Structures are given as C-alpha cells and as structure tokens.
Amino acid sequence: MTKVSNEEQSNNANLLLAEVAVLSCSRKRFENWVRENAQWQEKYICVMSERDVLGRFFKRVEKSYEWFRIGNANEVEKATLLRCR
User: Fold this and answer.
1) Which of the residues 38, 42, 72, 81 has an alpha carbon 20 to 30 A from that of 15?
2) Is residue 1 part of a domain?
C-alpha cells in the first residue's frame, strides 16, 4: 500500500465528474452514443424514464439517435431539463 500525500488527495478531490444526461430509447443506443461522444471528466447517465432523473442534477442534456421513441418522450425531456444547472 502506498501513501498518498495531502496535496495529491486534494488534487484527486478536485477532479469532480460533471454528470450529463443522455436521453435514449435503449441501452445499446446510449452505449453507442457514449463511445462516439465521450469527453474527459464527464459521467454519462442513461435517461429512459422520469425515474432516471430523480435526485440528480445535470450539467447538460444530450439526445441519442431516435431518443423520441422513449415512452412519454416529452415528459421525460421536461423532467430532465428541470434538473439542469
């Protein structure tokens, strides 16, 4: 086990990931979107229903291909946009 200095611990604490909501009709489309569009220091959350956004805040909202096939797509989009900072 290696010791980590206080300075290194504070640097690691500053590397917070920004959560980005990705509206998607399927997990496979979400994974494809992430593979093609991933950026450093961002955590992607697959949003397929209003339940997926409860208790979260997002930096921004992205949409995968054919996201509109989500059941109640308009309501899911509104709920997600309300959680954007």
Assistant:
1) 81
2) no
Residue 7 lies in a domain: no
**Residue 28 covered by a domain:** yes
Helix (H, G, I), strand (E, B) or coil at 5: coil
Please check the confidence at residue 15 and state whether its pLDDT lies above 90: no
**Residue for token pair 């409860």:** 54
Ramachandran category for residue 81: left, alpha or beta (phi over 0 → left; psi -120 to 50 → alpha): alpha
Range of the domain at 33: 15-82
For residue 1, give every residue at least 6 positions away whose Cβ sits within 8 Å of its Cβ, in sequence order, or none. Answer: none
Q: Is residue 2 part of a domain?
A: no
Residue 72, pLDDT score: 93
